[in-house]
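Data availability (excerpt). All sequences and predicted token strings are deposited with the supplementary files. A representative entry, GCN5 family acetyltransferase, is shown inline so that the format can be inspected without opening the archive.
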Amino acid sequence: MNSVHSTPGTDNHPVVVTRVSDTQWHAVEDDLTVGRGVASRRPDGRLFISIDAWHGAVFDRIADAMLADLPIPLYTVVDETDHDSRSAWERAGFTTRRREWGYLVPTDPQITGLGSVRPPSGVTIVPAGEAEEDPLCALDRLIRDEIEATVGWQTMPAEVLPRPAGVTVLDPSKYAVARHVDEYVGLVRMGPLTRQPRIGLIAVRADRHRRGIARALLAHALGSLHHSGTASAWAEVDESNAAATALFESIGALRAAGTLELVRR
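Structure token line:
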């Protein structure tokens, strides 16, 4: 910590980049703070960094300092339409790892066509806040293991909420689940946003795929939001997840944003 990197600045004043804590770097030029860098470790263990600087040259100075101080691999995310930020990270040696689509999802069943959707025979939907915590956590761990064994959990939407080590279900009240007889077989997690709720995760056990359970969970979640007066929700989908993309687009969700995850190895 407290490593110092000094280089020529933008107006012949030296830019001094100092690591002021385990996770923060400040760039100072002529006694003025001209940029900051931040590192944060996601719950999946990966180290993400971000840089806020007014000038490209200062960005490069901070990036050089952070790369010198931190172990690789390092990750960052950028809006795919922000070409300046993407170019700056590429100058620092980052390359595109994956793309995540952001969808604006209507809740009105007249638009989604989900008003008549019912769970398959033998399956019931347990509303958010009513699921038993132990079976919910067991289902969550099973689904995570199944995803990790196939496409890898890192292809799922980025999770940034801090949580104790080993804890994956942070707030059980945010989950609605699909129950078959006495087993939980699928789940949907809703997370609040400032202006609209977010569909954080929708997943079904691998041995119960292609039975309409995910569609029934989505119908329940969106229907509940509609009844509460919420017009739309937000969802992120990895572009390689064809099933999830098809599900959301089939109910009238609109692709409204794209985010690139970059990596430096």
